[in-house]
Amino acid sequence: MVARKFVVRHEDSSFDVDYNTEDGLEVLRFQIFSLTLVPPEEQKIVAEDDNRLVSDESDLASLSERLRLVSVGEDSVENSDAEMLKSDEELARMLQAEEDAIMFQQFVAARDNGGFEGRIRPYVSQVLMYEDPVRQDAARKTVPKDELEEKALVSLAKEGNFEPSKEERDYAFLLQLLFWFKKSFRWVNEPPCDFCGNKTIGQGMGNPLTSELAYGANRVEIYRCTMCPTTTRFPRYNDPLKLVETKKGRCGEWANCFTLYCRTFGYDSRLIMDFTDHVWTECYSHSLKRWIHLDPCEGVYDKPMLYEKGWNKKLNYVIAISKDGVCDVTKRYTKKWHEVLSRRTLTTESSLQDGLRTLTRERRSSLMFESLSKLELRDRNEQEELERNLHSADDASVSLPGRQSGDREWRIMRSEFGSDENSSVSSSSCPVRKCIDDHVTNIYDSFQPILTQFVEDGLPVARTNEVLEMIKQVLVDLKNAPYKTRKARLTLDSDNSSSFPEQFLPALGDLLLALSLKSERDTNGKSVTISVDGKLTKTAIALPVALDALRELVADLSKYQNLNKDSLSFPLVKQNRVCSGSVLASGEELPSGIATAAFDGIQESKWEEPNGAKGCWIVYKTLYNQMHQLIAYELMSANDAPERDPKDWILEGSNDGGSTWCVLDKQTSQVFEERFQRKSYKITTPGFQANLFRFRFLSVRDVNSTSRLQLGSIDLHRSHQ
């Protein structure tokens, strides 16, 4: 550990930063962010004495004390040797390798004889099935459209976007369609026995039946049961209409069927054929103005380097096929074009492009001039993008997994296993993320008047829980109702124990407000109708939080023999929760285990740090740099994997931009006995005002069995101000 004092110059200002080198570069970036408002991901920090870029490899202990901050977009210093993407010598080698590969292609051109084009042409007929109204209607009927629309709006709201454009909504819906499909479709290694459901063993290929040929199953795999004499057939259907029904297959069936779903909902879609034996989908995003990679087998989107970097694939040809034409998109999926080019030996590059242009012209021959012009403009923009992508630097902070679909032995046999069996998409360079969680604080606060009313009326704990269960049931009914027309009824009766006590109705006001709900007494006066107040997304994002909080509250109250005014304190009452700040973490899982998931109030979500088992951190910066005195905090274990629970940690606060830190609490040997278990802690160093709070997690429950740390939730509670 070395204490340093840096002077950081930015534009016309200078800032003093006291810094502990043990904390790493990310914390230094966050300190600079708190002073300059330049987000960490947009910072370039340069040592002024030698103009060298400060990176994760830099020795912060010996670095010059005078630094210069250059935000992305400003004119920067000249690139140092470390920043150069390619040396002249390396570039020369790459150019020579490309030239050699092109020369070798000349020797194979004569034996092509249009074979490459003939290999692609059947797929053109395949993608035209996606335009069939009958097939689209069959697919549409299987999709819970309202549910996916709601999830799409919630995903945008969690990013702070409560009024998205149509293009943003469409893109968010597309991702929810991908996640739904991943859960709905079933991967087949060996099909289970048709008779007893036990494991089967492959026996080779069989002759297709007429009923199988009707849906394009020219290949049929035969399997024998290991427990009974039954033979099971596995037809490899090519007609997506049949796949909508069977919902099973391998990558060919998955991509074939998913692309139909994409076209069904109006997305410009392409079937992507990888000649090294994989298939996936691309859709055009009007919000991003580019084609997006979507792999339904893996449930991964917009990660085109998944195959070369994660699976260690040796790509050669990646061809996009749609109703509007055929395109070579190999350059989207590689950073090693000179190596890929050496493996492209089926035909020459010129013959390849000629064949693809021929197929594209055929598909566009009947288009009107305006439509044709738009497609040609999109084609030109894509080619420019592919060239830029080829020469852009790879994001080394993003870790991509090996193949996850298919059994282990099959993946290893195909050399697609990757380097880590449990790997997933993750990032060691996280952006600062905004917490959209004021509704969580409002919901927690709204229980205070309800509990106070219970105490004032002297309700027994058993009756208290009965009333809370009635409230919970109303919220369950609302959550299960269509999100656009949510409505539920609460029956009132002061004397009937099975009805909601009318005198408690006013105490519900704050909870309904926190959920963006309204109540209206029915004409008979014996019931109340509760419905959305027009803010559909706010209700959708808040309802799961309220339900989780109510379940916890009922469980907590069950531990009390009676309820009195002294009971209405922390941790039963969780008032003054800090919210709406921003967070930065040492690492996170993408897309579901991001840092803000620890603050969203939902039990099923979690922050996951892929390399945090032996040490990691998360920093919380308050809204508008408001100073708060923490009095307590709570941590909740996540949904699974108890070995990843935090065991030892330190909570610190800072009021000078992170230059110095005050220890607020320290815990060791903590054990979460259950999943979704919330533990509450009082601050051991009270009275300290801070606007930055940092958890340093030192160890997980079992460092020998995992590299990861995960947390279901973090809640910070301040003193009343």
From TrEMBL:
Residues 243-298 form the Transglutaminase-like domain. One of its GO terms (molecular function) is metal ion binding. InterPro entries: Transglutaminase-like. Keywords: Metal-binding, Zinc. PANTHER family: PAW DOMAIN-CONTAINING PROTEIN, PTHR48440. Belongs to the transglutaminase-like superfamily. PNGase family. This is Transglutaminase-like. It comes from Arabidopsis suecica (Swedish thale-cress).
